[in-house]
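Chapter summary example.
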Amino acid sequence: MSQLFLPTERQPPADAEALSHKLMVRAGLVRQLGAGLWTWLPAGWRTHQRVVQIVREEIDAIGGQEMLMPVLQPAELWKRSGRYDAIGGELFRLKDRKNADMVLAMTHEEAVTYHAAQNVRSYRDLPMILYHFQVKERDEPRPRAGVLRTREFIMKDSYSFDRDQEGLDAAYERHRGAYARIYDRCGLEWFECQSDVGMMGGTVAHEYMAPCAAGEDDVVLAPNYSANLEIASADPQPVPALPDRVSGVLQTPGQTTIEAVAGGLDVQTGNLLKALPVVGESNGLVVIFVRGDHQFGEIKLNNALGERMRPAKEDDLERAGLLAGYIGPGSGARELYDAAVTPGRYVAGNNAANEHVVVEVIDGERIDVRTVVAGDTIGGTEVRIEPAIEIGNIFQLGTRYSVPLGLTYLDTQGREHPVVMGSYGIGPARIAAAAVEQFNDDRGICWPKSIAPFDVEVVALGKPGTQEQEVAARVYEQLVASGFSTLLDDRASGTGEKFADAELLGAPLRLTIGRRSVESGAAEAQIRRGQKDVEGGVSLTETAEAVRALWPEIA
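The structure predicted for these 555 residues follows.
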């Protein structure tokens, strides 16, 4: 440790909010270079690479072949796939010295499809799984939470290539199994959720979530159900029927919000219909109605209508003859109802200034666009909504990239077909940060032993050159020779500082060697998680054997 670049801190950065941000900086694992740009210092990089190795082993086990593709890529490939224009400012765009358009890749579908298209010819070349670990660049508008939301990060991308949907389904299931083993081996609490395909495209997607307070996503959970809040569905809480005293045309001058109308009529917000006029290139102007106590989910709306929709502007409403704040059924525009709008009486806009009206909703085209809230149910059980960190995602891409990029194969009859693809991502940095979020105490990090930067920390008390230091050095050498990743604190520092740094760094097992240890022939031993002292300590002469026997007890 006297030679290790491990700049520990007593106080966290002033701007740190996430616990992982605070502890990883304090423990000397990472340091910030700029907004969303982080350097992994030696101890932190050891953890990152231990995660990488677990991922590598599990992807190799399902037939993955590791390669490496460039971060800097010709924009032409992204233009052919359609993502160059579809992705907003998050994609770094630049020109080289010959004025050619280039991009810094945020993912590698275009590159891997290009390579496969140059080499796959026949059904005999399939199936195939290719993967790599590579830097990704994303011009994140609001970097935050340390290494959780950054502009540069390393990801494992694997890509499956199959002849048909049946082959893709099999590759997808193999990856699901591999991902489950990866997260279990990393010691995380996690769950698999249904998710949106987003900018990746395709038809089916799952994401993997680690529950923690710093999570940027919300997950809806129920028995046998888990989904990102962005796409989750559940049964809404019922609302009492609209009172009979409220009927006909209602004068509501200046009441253009749900809350104002409900308050003026002394009814619940769920007794009203909320109108959302939206516009899409293909759909044109559409008015969506949801219950007044519900909110629209943007991603659910876009998925339901098959394109990105935007809120209607004032001129859109003027052309359609609609009056903001008073839009209701019968407006003349195309109208859709949220699935939670059950048949019954509702207060809605009367398509005239200062007027609402009681309408009877019986039928109408239904789509699921509302956001699930606490108190909703699935199968009669109330859902839980928890914050979580996304630590991986998988997608069934289908032919989303193979068709525009010309990736085809010839079947046994010589007929040409597009290759069917899948994409599977994991972020080692997010796994490391999630572990810190989930496993810590008021003294520091309590790493899962599989991804800790060091298995064992040997704390040598006494000044350099003393017998305690010499014995500690021999114990250190014995542990290293036996395959344990070990850190020796041989600094000329006080006992309190050494213990504070050891607890902050969080090696699963700490061995302390002082004068009493030398006299008794046993090092004091403490398991970091729970700060559990090992009765009788650990032998100084057969340390490796004793640690190996103790190792199964350590999480």
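To summarize the output: The longest strand covers residues 384-398.
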